Amino acid sequence: MLFFSYFKDLVGREVTVELKNDLAIRGTLHSVDQYLNIKLENTRVVDQDKYPHMLSVWNCFIRGSVVRYVQLPPDGVDVELLHDATRREARGG
Amino acid sequence: MGSEEESAVKEPLDLIRLSLDERIYVKLRHDRELRGKLHAYDQHLNMILGDVEEIVTSVEIDDETYEEIVRTTRRTVPFLFVRGDGVILVSPPLRTA
Fold first, then answer.
1. How many angstroms separate the CA atoms of A58 and A27, rounded?
2. How many interface pairs between A and B have CB atoms less than 8 angstroms apart?
């Protein structure tokens, strides 16, 4: 639940989701669920010339399992909070 | 310091806990490696890393000479969430010389 809570706090911020098929999509985080499925708004593909088939897509739903990375805004991370939350979560697991 | 329970190293995930706020090396699937500061992780090995360098290794074979050309592509990202299903191993950084 740690990362679910973290992403919920990040709603409204700009992120870049990199998928396992190397597609990178930049957009505003609209919502997330317990599976870390992601809904993005105002989406644009990072390398538009290489991946033109999403030019008319404004919003998208991304299945959590196809995500490789999510690039986060540098100020969207309260590291102390994350460390504490991780220690608490790791103990319970 | 903390209670005995809190700082006891019982299972592999506890070993990773020792590396919180430290730099680590992560080997991923598809010939990728990451080096960065560990800020968070969970039992799936989902992670948040800071000041990350990603190294992608690819091998090309020359059509004529059949020699292997090993290429590495590097990039850095300030803060990165990594999905755990791509992680192979986590370790303190391997420092060569």
1. 9
2. 77
